[in-house]
């Protein structure tokens, strides 16, 4: 992720590109190009539709999540985390606590805040 990513469209197009490069079942994710009125909620809805027939686990790794500064993209990512099919697995990496986020460790519906899981003592 780019430094202080403020553009939700750039973020979501990057997520889609990453998922299309995963190998098995990556063809399920339809290509999408930038458009003036493309919003994250629409992208997430389309992505959920695309991934509804996943049969094998797929991993989405988002590094430098602390750089995501677009409130809209954060809300839409939370939506994806809460509603993704169980075959879509997430690895979210950040260099600092993400207190504004309401994500949970484990099942998203437990409502627990994200804590420093596996934090290195160097951080």
Explained architecture:
With 123 residues, this protein is α+β, with helices and mostly antiparallel strands. It has one domain (8-110). 31% of the residues lie in helices and 8% in strands. It has three helices and two strands, in the order H-H-E-H-E. The protein has helices spanning 8-20, 40-51, 71-83; strands at 58-62, 88-92. The chain has a two-stranded parallel sheet with strand order 1-2. Strand 1, helix 3 and strand 2 (88-92) form a beta-alpha-beta unit. The chain starts with 7 loop residues before the first helix and ends in a 31-residue tail after the last strand.
Low-confidence spans? 104-123
> What is the general shape?
globular
Category from helices, strands and their pairing = alpha+beta
Radius of gyration: 14 Å
Q: How many separate domains?
A: 1
Helix content: 25-40%
Q: Give the overall average pLDDT.
A: 78
Q: What distance lies between the first and last C-alpha atoms, to the nearest angstrom? A: 19 Å
Task: Give, in spatial order, the strands making up the sheet with the most strands.
Answer: 1-2
Tell me the major beta sheet.
2 strands, parallel
Put simply, the count of helices is 3
Strand composition percent: 5-15%
N to C succession of SSEs = HHEHE
Strand count: 2
